[in-house]
Amino acid sequence: MDEKKTVLIVEDEKSIVDILQYNLKKEYKILTAYDGEAGLNAALNQKPDIILLDVMLPKIDGFEVCRVLREKGHNVPVIILTAREEEDDKVKGLELGADDYITKPFSIREVMARVKANIRRTTAMSPGGDGAAAAVGGGLSINTNSRQVFKHDTPIDLTQREYELFAFLAANPGTVFSRSDLMAQVWNYGYVGDDVRTVDVTVRRLREKIENDPANPALILTRRGVGYYFAGQ
Ligand code: CA
């Protein structure tokens, strides 16, 4: 069955677009955009399954593209391509709702692995799923069919990564996971670099959305020096 997923590549360097397209087209349908405005339009109108998004782009930069997408409620996985090693760029991208980032220069193998990992998360979603939401404590409930989290029956707007992190922690209440564990389990990476800060940023964003007082979390707790866990019931 031809159910190829669609990858939108937003990047102004043609040589990079070409190499990505060449490698990804074997497995995915490819859309391309060479500036931020075209990229945003393609993302909004053509509904890709994943976006590879450069930061430094003509017209609108990648951060803004990501911000607008999230503001409009689009939860498509976004992988930021950052030319700089700077931690600031990575964190800023994640703060704005990106799911992941890749630092240029990248290996094609790494890109392929990350695209696959990010798409795999979304294909777990069952199409028309309703089903009942299961209470997980703290006034929160989760519907793993529709992949929604509710707080006192009101749906919370989570990115896919935030959902994944929450679902994983909530499925294992009281179990403390190191950031490396979470990278492996939630981000599907079989290795751990200095990327563990990604976990911290995502936990912070999640707390802002689900905790009554994000500064004093009661649901997703830190075990200092060890990791994070869900307090649950
Ligand atoms: Ca660029």
Structure, described:
With about 230 residues, the protein is α/β, with parallel strands linked by helices. The chain contains eight helices and eleven strands. It has helices at about 15-25, 35-45, 60-70, 85-95, 110-125, 160-170, 180-185, 195-210; strands at about 5-10, 30-35, 50-55, 80, 100-105, 135, 140-145, 150, 155, 220-225, 225-230. Strand 4 (about 80), helix 4 and strand 5 form a beta-alpha-beta unit. Helix 2 packs parallel to helix 3 (about 60-70) and helix 4 runs parallel beside helix 8 (about 195-210). The model is unreliable at about 125-130 (pLDDT under 50). The structure holds calcium ion. Calcium ion binds near residues 13, 56 and 57.
Features of the shown structure:
alpha/beta; 8 helices; binds calcium ion; 5-stranded parallel β-sheet
